[in-house]
Specification:
With 354 residues, the protein is mainly alpha-helical. The chain folds into 3 domains: 181 residues, no CATH class; 45 residues; 97 residues, Arc Repressor Mutant, subunit A (Orthogonal Bundle). Helix content is 51%, strand content 7%. The chain has 17 helices and 8 strands. Strand 5 and strand 6 form a beta hairpin. Helix 14 packs across helix 17. The longest helix has 16 residues. It is globular.
């Protein structure tokens, strides 16, 4: 083994910029790795100004499975391509304008350039360049969230298809270890890490940012946030609570496949509304806050892995007034107007167990 650990390519601030970029792309409603990989490359170039250039050669470098579909998917979200990226000259830059990106990713000019170079280096690394698109996208996430001398934790926003591809990164040698949601970059990949040893104490950083956020919100919102944070029944990780409250709200776009899945699901759950209402009332009586979407679905015994489907189910319950919430504040689900006013929490709790 080598006696020294190579210095990372990114500074602490540039590593934070890389993680913001990846979190932003993960929040955009894109179907799979091809569109997400393309979005990462375009978004870092368009950060700050809202517009960036990409060439046909850049597309070739990305080795996407279905390049036309990826371009079409971004275009369907309003990303504006000022030229023929697919069939035009491979060396001619095509400007891409991404509405709202300049505000969403306020990255400095230097950080933008360094992160763009880091993306290229990571995707071109020996153990990554011939991997599947999902594995290559996962490599960016894992590199950005680890330091060059410690284990990293798989980030919660990592897309599901990337999670499924993690064993591929282990087999190819990008990862030295992978188990129980933790991983270690292989020695040759550690220079790509986006965190420094002193920035790796994420809990301390989260606590500072969380406290600053609480100091800046209303007393009512702070009380609610601390009810969730200190709930003795949920005992949620601080990082999970802080992330849920502090991340910017993203408009929910429901793909047709999710709507179709909901149609099939609701037919087998005809009493979903009354039961969800009862569960929400009982949960609030016990916890002093509402359930999360996942807690609601798990508490109801609905085995639903898709976050999009869970979100749409709850959206429909709210639309039909079985539930209500204080969007976009998390953990605020509660009985809606359809609730029977003569039901006490104790009665609801009893009936919800039947």
């Amino acid at each position: 083994m080598r006696s020294t650990v190579p210095p990372p390519l990114l500074t602490i601030q540039q590593g934070e910029a890389a993680r913001r970029l990846l979190s932003h792309v993960a929040s955009v409603r894109l179907a799979g790795a091809d569109a997400q990989l393309l979005a990462v490359v375009i978004a870092i170039r368009a950060a700050r100004a809202g517009s960036g250039n990409i060439t046909g050669q850049d597309l070739d470098f990305l080795r996407l499975g279905d390049t036309p579909a990826a371009v079409a998917e971004l275009a369907s979200l309003g990303w504006q391509f000022a030229g023929d990226l697919l069939d035009g000259d491979r060396e001619t830059p095509v400007a891409v304008t991404v509405p709202g990106l300049a505000d969403a990713l306020p990255i400095s000019r230097t950080a933008r350039s360094r992160v763009s170079g880091w993306i290229t280096r990571t995707l071109a690394s020996k153990t990554v360049k011939k991997a599947s698109p999902s594995a290559r996208l996962a490599a960016l996430f894992l590199a950005a969230h680890s330091s060059n001398d410690r284990y990293g934790a798989v980030p919660p926003e990592l897309p599901e298809h990337c999670r499924a591809a993690l064993p591929e990164l282990l087999d190819r040698g990008f990862l030295a270890e992978l188990a129980d949601g933790r991983y270690l970059l292989d020695e040759d990949a550690r220079r790509l890490s986006g965190m420094h040893p002193r920035s790796h104490d994420s809990t301390a950083l989260v606590r500072l940012r969380w406290q600053a956020w609480k100091d800046g919100v209303s007393p009512a919102l702070r009380r609610h946030a601390e009810n969730v944070e200190h709930c003795p029944l949920c005992t949620p990780p601080l990082e999970q609570v802080a992330s849920a409250f502090m991340r910017p709200a993203v408009p929910m776009q429901i793909p047709l496949r999710v709507r179709n899945a909901y149609g099939a699901w609701k037919d087998s759950h005809p009493d979903r509304g009354p039961h969800a209402l009862q569960f929400a009332a009982a949960f609030r009586a016990q916890h002093q806050h509402g359930p999360s979407l996942k807690q609601l679905c798990e508490g109801m015994g609905w085995q639903i892995e898709s976050r999009e489907l869970r979100s749409f189910i709850v959206q429909r319950l709210i639309t039909n007034e079985w539930l209500t919430n204080t969007a976009p504040v998390p953990w605020t689900l509660r009985p809606g107007k359809a609730a029977q006013t003569d039901r006490t929490p104790a009665t609801v709790l009893s009936s919800s167990t039947r």
